[in-house]
Amino acid sequence: MSAAATSAADAARTRDGDAGVRIADGIRTGIVTGRFPPGTRIRQEDLAAQYGASRVPVREAIRQLEYEGLVTVVANAGAWVSRLTLAECEEIYLMRERLEPLLLRFSAPHLTPDQLESLAVLAQRISVVGADTDAFLALDAEFHLASYEGARTSQLGDLVRRLWNSTAPYRRAYVASWEPESRRIAHEEHHLMVAALRDEDVEEAERILAGHIRRTRRQLARSPEIFEA
Prior knowledge:
Pfam families: FCD, GntR. The protein has helices spanning 3-32, 44-51, 55-67, 86-107, 113-126, 133-147, 156-176, 180-198, 202-221; strands spanning 41-42, 71-74, 78-81.
């Protein structure tokens, strides 16, 4: 192959790779925000037309989302937004309950005063969104993921983000059903976590976070109808 042909092939692969990342990001955002509910059919031809791309980056995007657990691919049939059973969701929350405090332990010593202040601001913003489910979910994810920014890990951070994304549609339905008391408790836990991090009490921050996740898991278990839709 000539140098010019090799360069053109490399450029095409780069374009396909960039398009694949862009398509995967778009679908992932649609799933996490509830635009693509569990069970939604993912049609390659529609995505190719929407993004002005060939089937190659679309297939790459779907393959990535399948790896993340967000999309289920059935051979010779197509792809759908993954569904979780209640048991599967409970298992993921049990994993989060143990893994996220560990990730916070890795992160906490490296959080700067400015990052801690940003967490405090986020906690305050979350506490005033009221019954706006979309605003709560967006700020809540920003808060927790920001609390892990100091972690220097090669595997754990990515794993936690995948676990977060996989349960997002069900958490959305659960948060939408919250009574004011449930919101108040969640807000208090965010503020308590910031206070513990500021005090450099990592064990207390871990304890608060584990309880925060455990409470969600237990309340989801009392809402089986969310998984039957």
